[in-house]
Amino acid sequence: MYIVYLYIDILVSYCCHLIQGFTTYAERRIVEVVQGEERATLNMGIGWRGLNRMMERFKDNMEFTKLKPKMAGIDPDDVYSEVPYEKGFQFLWRIEREIGRPAFDEFLKKYIATFKFQSIDTETFLEFLKTNVPGIENKIDLHLWVEGTGIPPDAMEPDSATYKKICSLAAEFKSGKLPSEDEVAKWSGQEWELYIENLPADVEASQVWALIKYQCYLSFIGISSVLLHMTIVIDKILEKGTVEYLIVHTTILEYFTIADKTSASDAICQLIPLLTQGALIIDGDEPTNAPELPKKAKAKKKRSKEPLIVRIMQTREGLKLGISCLKYGSAKISFGRYTIGQA
Fold first, then answer.
1. CA pair distance 307, 304, nearest whole angstrom
2. 69-95: pLDDT as tens digits
3. No. of H helices and E strands in the chain?
4. Of 71, 86, 69, 91, which is closest to residue 142 (Cα–Cα)?
5. If pLDDT is split at 50, 70 and 90, which confidence band does 211 have?
6. 302 φ/ψ angles, rounded to the nearest 5 degrees
7. Using 50, 70 and 90 to split pLDDT, how confident is the model at 288?
8. Residue 141 Cα to chain centre, angstroms
9. Can you tell me the distance from the alpha carbon of 144 to that of 150, in angstroms, rounded to the nearest whole number?
């Protein structure tokens, strides 16, 4: 998904949440071509469930269920959610259903051709939509979709047979029934994740233990292969030294949830030198030599004296990462005048 996000962001940059919606839409169109319609619909079903979960999360502050929320004075990390991805996807999917996929594909081609390598805002997109799809504002309440809270009434829950089957199997777990080997034979990690997320909240500990011991589950979930894949990903991230970003903090924290202590300690050993160096900051502008952008300037970066760990721990995920360093680290770690770790 990150590659799709980067590609779309390069083509058209947005001063709004629509980029996440376009990314999710494009990702699912790719999945449909590569893995089939049912797999794409399963992804949509999982996204729909996540969107409804976000409605519950923000029930006391529905502002953050808008596609265009008011963010003045708000730390984006504090309200990061699936809303822009899944509600944004639902918005584009609603337009596709209204005018048909062939017409929507033509609209997207014209849209990208018009605004490629430019930055636009929400209003620009909406005006372009109304100009190129005449009367769309009379068929879809665009204001409600972009400025309204919650899930619009014309949003649609995807109809995935696989999604319904998995949810049904999860509901049966409370009565002690586990899925058969035939039922899980073609499951990937995504199906298992959906199954586990839909387990009843009030199951007995003995039932959970029965699932953990379930040989079929252990063989198909493939923790060892997942760990190997994530280790490769983490190693590449640490080699590049790009550890100041929230998405990296989240990825490393997810890795720690499945890594054994040795693997986690190895990652920490690579992470510590990166956290002890100064954080990258912008230090004025330096003209670029690129001939196609003679009037542009690129930011010059330098490292501050403040260790990176001090800066990243100002965010929730960064703080968790710092605490994880304490948890897995065995040696005393010094950050200038800051010292953490065991003596």
1. 7
2. 988 888 887 888 899 999 999 999 999
3. 18, 6
4. 91
5. low
6. -140, 170
7. very low
8. 27
9. 9
Q: Which residue has the tokens 């542009």?
A: 296
Break the chain into its structural domains and give their ranges: 2-147, 161-221, 224-285+299-340
Place of tokens 């960064």: 318
Distance (Å, rounded) from C-alpha 162 to C-alpha 70? 37
CB neighbourhood size of 45 (10 A): 21
Strands 12-14 and 118-120: parallel
Residue pointed to by tokens 């596609």: 67
pLDDT digits (tens, 9 = 90+) for 124-165: 999 999 999 999 999 999 999 999 999 999 999 998 889 899
Q: Are strands 297-307 and 278-287 parallel, antiparallel or unpaired?
A: antiparallel
CA distance linking residue 276 with residue 253, whole number of Å: 18
Q: Which residue is listed with tokens 């912008």? A: 282
| Tokens (6 digits) for 226 | 């997942």
CATH superfamily of 2-147: Neutral Protease Domain 2 (1.10.390.10)
